[in-house]
Amino acid sequence: MEEGEHPSSRPPLPRPPASASSAIVSTSPLTYVVQIPKNQIYRIPPPENAHLAEHYRTHVASLRHQRAPCLKFLSRFFLIFAAVAVPLLIAALVLYLLVRPASPTLRVHHLAAKKTQFDVSASIANPSNAMGYLLDGGGAAVLAYQGKSVAKGEPPHFYLKAKESKTFRLEMHGVGKAADRERLRGSKETVELRLTVDVPVRLGVWGLRLWEMKMNMDCEIMMKSLGKKARVASQDCKTKVMITLC
Description:
By secondary structure, this protein is α+β, with helices and mostly antiparallel strands. Helices cover 29% and strands 38% of the residues. It starts with 17 loop residues before the first helix and ends with a strand.
């Protein structure tokens, strides 16, 4: 600039071309504003939450590992038990339906008093479908009057098949006071007697002899006299078959 020239008298500088202005704008960073609904705002959990979740998963896995052996043992035990018990139960049910075990029934037909003994005629029936009873002998038969034994005898020995009935005779020898037997023999009134028979029996199913048991027969008998015209007025007989432990 020459001396003495005023700045305002100088001509204005030329404007930059449009291409240059656009180039400057394109190189500057851009900013965008994105609007998202409130119900769709996503947040990243803090890192400590991830550590807590990992610790929880590790703890649960260790507990499962500790309980797994017990659960496996119990499941195997119940499976083995069911595999053994169910067939046995089915077999026992089928056997029961086929055999239909039932205790024999006793019935007294005649009872007479003599000088030194009592004669008893009775029958025993087996209502079972396929179970037999072998009376092994031994045991005892007792006739009582007013709680006192007046005669004793030995039960018979025989095999009672299924659906079979047999009549037998008991010769019972007098015990106790002879005066009590004489009073019974000469009585013409109704007399109440009690006959009990305990005898060992062995069960049999389809020809197989099973374990030994004990059979008890108990009869409450009302007699119309005990002489020549002796007659059974009424009776109530019960039979039980019990397992012997020795």
